[in-house]
Write a structure and sequence with these properties.
Layout: H1 10-20, E1 24-25, E2 27-32, E3 38-43, E4 46-51, E5 54-58, H2 70-78, E6 80-84, H3 91-96, H4 107-110, E7 115-116, E8 125-126, E9 131-143, E10 150-162, H5 175-178, E11 181-183, E12 189-191
Antiparallel strand pairs: 1-11, 2-3, 2-6, 4-5, 5-10, 6-9, 7-8, 9-10, 11-12
Bound molecules: flavin mononucleotide.
Length: about 200
């Protein structure tokens, strides 16, 4: 079977691509609105792309009516955001925070979370999270236009907060303690419980 993207409707292309490129990690992102409301939303068009400096990219796409999501508007305004862990204990809250609320309503309150001040950015971070990455916007790259078109938010990680509870006795992150979850196609999610290790070739 072959699918030529230019011959299929955009929503169908979306379903194919998110079902095939899976699982994807989920950035749980706080931003600050122009009027000071703390916004919280999950994004699985997300990954990390280097370490010198550590750089993250995620993509709030345009909505089905081609308007911008609050997260994009907020980052355009303040140029800062905080990415939090998406882990098993929070799956219900992560999902609930994807609800379309008005820009004046904070998803943080809506999902029953609390925030505390960040250190290097003005955007507050979740008070309880296995990790949080304070990020400064480097560049926004819009790709395409219209519904579900990408807006690549490229950000430098300035500060990493880590809960010692996810560390092993050597001070390294233990994936069994972190308990990351990820997104696949449709309504599918996965846990990171079926772990294995392999030595890399020299
Ligand atoms: C697990 C999960 C992953 C998501 N990933 C994305 C994504 O990568 N890009 C996107 O635009 N929307 C994504 N969404 C939908 C947004 O979270 C949703 O549109 C949200 O309302 C955006 O919030 P905002 O308008 O406050 O920015 C995802 C939703 C869920 C539940």
């Amino acid at each position: 079977m072959q699918i030529e993207i230019s011959k299929i409707p955009v929503p169908e292309a979306y379903q194919w691509i998110v079902s095939l490129v899976a699982p994807r990690p989920i950035a749980w992102v706080t931003t600050l609105s122009p009027t000071g409301v703390v916004n919280l939303a999950p994004f699985s068009f997300f990954n990390v792309f280097g370490a010198n400096p550590p750089v993250v990219v995620f993509s709030p796409t345009l909505k089905r009516d081609s308007t911008k999501k609050d997260t994009l508007i907020n980052i355009e305004h303040h140029g800062e955001f905080v990415i939090h862990a998406s882990t098993e204990p929070d799956i219900a809250a992560i999902n609930a925070s994807s609800a379309s609320l008005s820009p004046e309503t904070s998803e943080v309150d809506y999902v029953g979370k609390e925030t505390i001040p960040s250190v290097l950015v003005k955007v507050p971070r979740l008070a309880k999270s296995p990790f949080a990455l304070e990020c400064k916007l480097r560049q926004i790259v819009p790709v395409g236009n219209g519904p579900i078109s990408a807006n690549l938010i490229i950000g430098d990680v300035l500060m990493i907060h880590v809960d010692p509870a996810i560390l092993d006795k050597h001070g390294k992150v233990d994936p069994k303690l972190l308990r990351s979850v990820a997104r696949l196609g449709g309504e599918h999610w996965c846990r990171s419980t079926d772990l294995f290790q392999m030595e890399r070739p020299g």
